[in-house]
Amino acid sequence: MALDILAIAAHPDDVEQTCGGTLLRMAEMGYQTGVLDLTAGDMGTRGTPEQRIVESEIAAKHLQLAWRGNLHLPDARLENSLAARMTLAVKIREVQPHVVILPYWQARHPDHYRAGELGYEACFLAGLKKLDPYSEPHRPFKIIYSSLYADVKPSFIVDISGQFDRRMTALFSYTSQFGQFGEEGGTLFPDEQEIRERLSAIARFYGNQIGVRYGEPFVVKEAIEIADIVAMPVRSI
Length: 237
Ligand SMILES: [Zn+2]
Description:
Bound molecules: zinc ion
Helix content: 25-40%
Radius of gyration: 18 Å
Oligomer: single chain
């Protein structure tokens, strides 16, 4: 298998909030897209890991993913250990992504920034010939960071106006997480309307920066090359 794009995330339902619109848009352009969730959310207050996996498969269909996997690493205590890096690197060699999307390296939830670190280091290791005798080396060409929940200026924003509604449908496939209020979750879990409004406001905020309705932000560490400055999009303010 050779994926064009692989998004690596800490928990099932992370990509549906941060870069699912972009994944769907790329799939619609004909690219092979995939998601690798590092944990199955076994520390979550609501639902079981088995439920989360089933829900993530339903969400995958809405996002038109060619592949979705789960490494079943420990949730809420994700560690950038040698074993975790090796497991992830071997998986990267298996699915051979050209572009990898990682969570931005600063975040409130330790799993999120660790997933970013772990992903970055595993992408490097995956390119080492002698890492593992049973798989071929593969180093992704490009790493981009999904920065939707980070307080940082994006390097670029993808217009997801045509994909936003379906991204929300994908997110609400996680009925164990985003159902209406239940006894066990208490007030920890905002209801569906609240989530819809919040994510819509965030997507509108980023869309507005490039003059479209909805957008998803990304950060890259390298400069971006522009061949034709006359054809550059986004009107100056
Ligand atoms: Zn998460």
